[in-house]
Amino acid sequence: MASLKDQIRKAQDIKHQDDVEIPEWVPGARFRVCGLPSGDWEAYQNSLAKMTRRDEAKGVEMTIKSRKAEIVAKALRDQEDGELVFPDLREGIAILSKRSGGIVNGLFNLVRHLSDEDRDFTQKVEAAEADFGAGQS
């Protein structure tokens, strides 16, 4: 029997959604959108707010920096072969940053949902308990 650590390492817990169509970009193509692992979400959350010091007289300035294009570039895959649409992350961010904000935002929200980032802690615990009660391991 494998150790708990090995079982966790092998767990397939990252959700995905197939058959995502974006006809404005590529008519007829189907994409797979994947949730992201916790490390990517933590990096995203840590980068949202960036403090910069302007000068002593004016104090501190808060700058909010959106990185939705980065999250989408990390999650968007070709449904046929499962490969990233943007293997070069910088290029993907540059391309997506110039696309429709509504489409990128919609994909971002889907990634967020697939990553379970749209539920609070209590909802996550309740879902885990339900899965456990259903006999999932």
Total of helices = 6
Shape: globular
Mean pLDDT: 84
Report the uncertain regions.
none
Describe the sheet with the most strands: 3 strands, antiparallel
Helical content band: 40-55%
Question: Strand content of the residues, in percent?
Answer: 15-25%
Report the span from N to C terminus: 14 Å
As laid out across the biggest beta sheet, the strand order is 1-2-5
Supply the helix-strand structural class: alpha+beta
Q: Number of DSSP strands?
A: 5
**From N to C, what is the helix and strand string?**
HEEHEEHEHHH
Write the layout of secondary structure elements.
Blueprint lengths: L3 H7 L5 E6 L8 E5 L3 H11 E7 L3 E6 L3 H8 E3 L10 H8 L4 H14 L6 H13 L4
What does this structure look like?
With 137 residues, the protein is of the alpha+beta class. The protein is built from six helices and five strands; from the N terminus they run H-E-E-H-E-E-H-E-H-H-H. The strands form two sheets. A three-stranded antiparallel beta sheet has the order 1-2-5. Helix 3 (68-75) packs across helix 4 (89-96). The two termini are 14 Å apart.
Name the features:
137 residues; alpha+beta; three-stranded antiparallel sheet; two-stranded antiparallel ribbon; 45% helix; globular
Question: What is the structure about, briefly put?
Answer:
By secondary structure, this protein is an alpha+beta fold.
